[in-house]
Amino acid sequence: MAVTKTIPVTAAVREETAEKPPNRFRQAFPQYAAISPFFILFAVFGAFPILFSIWISFHSWDGIGAMKFVGFEQYSYLLGDPKFWQAIGNTMIIWVLSTVPMLLLALVIANALHNATRFRTFYRIAYFIPNVTSVVAVTLVFGSIFSNNFGLLNAFLQSIGLGKVEWLTQPWGIKIAIATIVTWRWVGYNAIIFLAGLQAISADVYEAAKVDGASPRQTFWRITVPMLRPVILFTAVTSTIGGLQIFTESRVLFGDTNNIGGPGDAGMTIVSYLYQSAFIKNQFGYGAAIGWALFILIVLFSIINWRLIGGNDSERLTSRAKRRADRKIAVQKGAAK
Fold first, then answer.
1. How many Cβ atoms sit within 10 Å of the Cβ of residue 206?
2. The domain spanning residue 235 has which CATH number?
3. What is the domain count for the chain?
4. How far apart are alpha carbons 30 and 321 in whole angstroms?
5. Half-sphere exposure of 174 (CA within 13 A, CB side)
6. Each residue of 286-304: pLDDT tens digit?
7. Per-residue pLDDT tens digits for 219-247
8. H helices within 43-81, ranges in order?
9. 72 found inside a domain
10. What is the domain extent for residue 270?
């Protein structure tokens, strides 16, 4: 009589589970659940508005009724809209008037703070406070300073024998007033960024330059500025992005909803025109088109800053060495003649 060998049930189940691969999703589910709030919030408040703005830029929509598909008509009208080009011109002028002096002044302030020996922490806090101050409150204060009739600036000009300037009615006066507010608010922030870059430079480099007989001016322009190039690139790109998105300063300075850019729309920026088109005239499709045009401008100017300030270090060093060698050859040829 043959004897059949039976395998215990527990052993069979154990062999079956050993052969079955583990479920990776179940194992990683607690980790995915822990980080899911960020992705859910980003999808709702970040990704969806971006995709929806692309969608409505191809539609004519007043925010309530049905959408009407118009294709690229919003963008074609944008290219021929004189107000849009005026807003671009105003934004560029304000950006140049604010960003260039702001970065130069921030670099000088950072260098002074880096070399300061007393009250260093106090000065850092004092320069950074404007950045955390309410931009609305700051704009109201500067509005009283640049006021045409009772402004402090005109009172000072008249006290030294000069005539008053119509700051808030003349086109250039409006742009200078807005640029001054932007510069005052962000110069301390950029100075702190520059200061962090200066502290990362080794003191041995300055000591070697001092031993070689370099003057403070030569040290600043030939050591400090080149070694701060990555920091300068960062501040230039962030200042470009912020400068092209100026809105609050002009909006608060000229509170009139019907004339959001001041007299002659001299203070109307790109974002101001976007706000006026979308939220005052209820042209949400056209406002979305303006927003994406602004996005393209920011990308283009960021690339320009990258090419002018950033780039490949080895290529720059090679080109410099080649130029120096060419100069030496030209001098030797001139001396030989």
1. 15
2. 1.10.3720.10
3. 1
4. 57
5. 21
6. 999 999 999 999 999 888 8
7. 888 888 888 888 988 998 899 898 899 98
8. 48-56, 73-79
9. no
10. 82-132+171-313
